[in-house]
Amino acid sequence: MTAKRPSPRHLVLAALVVAVVAVLGAAFAGLGDARPGLPTLPAAAAKPAEGHLPFGRIEPPRALPEVALTLDDGTETNLAAETADGWTLLQTMFAGCATTCPIQGVLFQRAAAALDGVPVRLLSVSIDPIGDNPRVLAGWLRQFEAPASWRAARPALADLGPLLDALGARDDGADIHAARAYLIDPAGRLIFITEELPDPDGLAGLVREAIAALSPDFAAPAS
After folding, report:
1. CATH classification at residue 171
2. Which cysteines are joined by disulfide bonds (predicted)?
3. In a domain, 32, yes or no
């Protein structure tokens, strides 16, 4: 009995399936290696000391470097201005990221909802200052229906390395940056670094506790 030959359409579909499987396999196999399209980070100034924990309370609070920023609406500003006289939750990301950054966006979206009425800013800082122009950053925020209190920015290329070093935001994983959140006090100092992909409600609780500790008269809305 002669076997029935597959139709051209079936051959095309089979080729597509093989191609998709190959692409996915390569993606999973390369998680830890630099992928095409990943931004190239500046060299680190120094390695963290042995035994250094990458998260937790920062004692004493850490001053952050001068960083020129371009916001999602094209406004030219700087990190000191964006963190002055108020509490700030900062995360690092880039719009071309397809793994942890979308999760980070959802985490900030839910944290923003949990912090509704609480005087805190959210700031997503791109590690791809060449690729993430204001239009791209604005589109990234729209994906998560970001409120007015949540902005995105790209740093000046020369300022990216010092900022990452001050935050401890470098990572050897698939997206080359840490998926943490960084709490900055009204003096512009880093006071807390979360674990990777923090729980949104826990993030909101962290902010409320920090504000209450330094502002005894602060009455946060009920969560």
Report:
1. 3.40.30.10
2. 97-101
3. no
> Is 97 annotated in some ligand binding site?
yes
* Residue range(s) defining the domain that contains residue 122: 56-214
Q: What is the DSSP letter of 65?
A: P
pLDDT tens column, 59-118: 899 999 999 999 999 999 999 999 999 999 999 999 998 889 999 999 999 999 999 999
Is 76 annotated to bind ligand?
no
What's the total number of domains in the chain?
A: 1
**What is the SS3 string spanning the chain?**
CCCCCCCHHHHHHHHHHHHHHHHHHHHHHCECECCCCCCCCCCCCCCCCCCCCCCEEEEEEEECCCCEEEECCCCEEEHHHHHCCCEEEEEEECCCCCCHHHHHHHHHHHHHHHCCCCCEEEEEEECCCCCCCHHHHHHHHHHCCCCCCEEEEEECHHHHHHHHHHHCCECCCCCCECCCCEEECCCCEEEEECCCCCCHHHHHHHHHHHHHHHCCCCCCCCC
pLDDT in tens, 143-172: 999 999 999 999 999 999 999 999 988 765
Residue 49 falls inside a structural domain: no
Please list the residues that pair with 68 across neighbouring strands. 78
The string of pLDDT tens digits covering residues 171-220 is 655 556 789 999 999 999 999 999 999 999 999 999 999 999 876 554 44
In a domain? residue 101: yes
Is 96 part of any domain?
yes
Residue 101 CB contacts under 8 Å (≥ 6 apart), including other chains: 93, 94, 95, 175, 179
